[in-house]
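Comment thread on ticket #2218

A.B. wrote:
> Attaching the input chain for the structure job we discussed in standup.
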Amino acid sequence: MTTTRRHLLRSGGIGAAAVAAGALTTVPAQAAAPAGSAKDTGDDGKSGAKGGGTAGRPATTAATVADLLATPSKSLRDGTVTVVAGYRAPGDGGGMTVRWDAGSTRAPNGGTVLRPNDRPAHGRWRRLHDGVLDFRGFGLFDASAPADDALDAMVDDPSVHRVEAHTDLLFQRRHTYHRSRLTLDFGGHTVHTGGIERNTHDNPFGAVLFFQGTVTGDTVSHALSAEVIELTDAFPVPDSGAFKVGQWWAVQSDEVAGGGSDERELQKMVEVTEVIDGTHIRVDYLNGWPLAAGRKLTWRRVEPVVGVRVDHLVFLGAGQDTGAVDDEYTGSHPVAYEYAVDCDVSGIQATGTFWPVIMRRWCTRYRTIQCGLKNPPTVMYGGAGYLTQQIYCLYGHVADCTSSNVRHLNDLTASAYCQVVNCHGDGDDEGGNPFTTHGQYEHDLLFDGNSGLMDIANSGAQWGDSAKRITVRNHVCSWFTANTKITDLTLENVKVIARPTFDPAGTLVVNADGAQLRGCTASFFAVAQQSARSTRPTTVTDCTFDLPKASVLVQTPVTAPVHFVRTTFTGLDGNVLRGSGPVHFTDCRLVGSPKAAPLAVGASEVTVDGGSLTDTGIALSAVRDQRISVGGGTALSGTNTAKALLSRDAGTGATVTWDLADLRSSAADADTAHVRVADGHNRYTAVGARLTGGQLALAEDAFGDTSSLLHTACTEDGVDRKGLPADGKRISATTGNLIL
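C.D. wrote:
> Ran it. Output below, let me know if you need it in another format.
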């Protein structure tokens, strides 16, 4: 061993001497615990020192680790401190300060525990550090050799709180850890995984870095004696003495009776914040769904990993050339968390990973920032090809992330109170929609300022097809579907722009269960209905839709009222409002063409209040009793293939009620009727309408003994009254009108 600074200056230059000087003056108090302390015992639990510490002993020096280990162990005094200028060469970044622990029998690991070349049974060089280590201190300067042993040595050392990488690295094992309060910062370098060990079947947690909390044996199961209401944080328990403030519990409800095999409204990891009384506790979560009396809750106490973050790496997935079937075993991905709190990830840019780049389950409070994924080996295999998947998660924030050619950029399953902000997915022509939720009773999620295909609660009935209070703002995509059991959906400034390479229709579909749209744009737009849980109306305000020919605007199952406000519909040609629920148009603009068919409307009630209908019209289907109200200054004009701006089909025993007032109708030609009622049972009232040109076609056959007709206080300018019945007990069509 060299013991002079003069030798360091000769072999390593001024930089090496600076390293040595710095190390000599910054020996950490924590790492330099005196011999005999709990932090400094050997594997046999005995002190490596025979007395005293290192006080007063001069530090020696070594140019490299090889020089250090070449020193005969018998010549070393217990407690000797040595400054090593570099791992392989002075100043190479792998330098360290070490202390000789004569009694230690710990296994050498090449970095924090070193055994001299003469391999003594007792005696190790123990690295002194302040809790920050990096892979160069284990002789790893590139990806030519696996770094797995070094990773284990650092992560398994509880005195280490930060692990850094300053070069590219190679990992060939899948590591599972259970510790907390650790940062792994790879400094933007590349992590390679070629030749990684095989994963097990269907295991998205077989990541290179898997941090997993511990499930204890404490379990409480009970049936609810009363309803647990929505948005409560106070939960009944059989005996609150089993719970303590600050404990974490994974709580889940039993399956919904008659529902899917995995359909549960509650699956979250929560912290006990208060013991209210003998049979109630408070947790850090406002329940998103009510639970009826008799439902079963199961609580499992867990000890989560806390405060473990992974930062700044480029990750190259393995197994890309073996085919999707085998890729679940040979593929690799960087990070997974289960039962974790305050565990953040930032700056991971991955290529070719099979399972999600960042996999989370039972996680609470976390951030995933500035991450990305490109070109996973498959977007067709369930669970594969994701940037991040989050199952049973709370209070997550995903921001500034990107994806290319993936299945999902972000998947939130059975999760709540999470945000996805400024994330962008491209290359989704194969149907891998970047933004999704599973439909396992997600609630209170916000998507803001993102781009890419999106669907919500669309993974199938097995999980419930349900979600609540999802808000999407400032989103751009070419396809958006939210037509399952989605309650209180809010869309603001969502633009669906048709793209010929994926969805030429530019589809936007929503569930009429409290959906509210504001300032949205799409081509194909449809309102569906699979649930009726909401107390708020379904409204579509200040939107624009260019509908494809004959598309169904309101689908058959819709029974809820749907209200369109200041919304523009263009391209109308035989479009259909088939649902039975009331439809209301307020100050809307509906535009077709002279050669297009009118709207076919099956709604029980249709109200047009203001706005305009140009070269289109409303043809009531009469498949049920219907009421149509047109007023508020509505302007009808032009013509259509039916040659009628307002009309009805014959129907079978259906009664149509016509309430027409304060409207202006201008027919494009003499053959176009403002109103055509040829048959069926009708109750017709028109008061204060102004009609110009065309026809008023109210056939005698449409007004039998129980029908009625009142047409008064109207102005008709050049209108051909086509076959109106004579006035009688239930008919008045000639009195009080101004005929020009």
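A.B. wrote:
> Thanks. Noting for the ticket: Confidence is low (pLDDT under 50) at residues 1-52.
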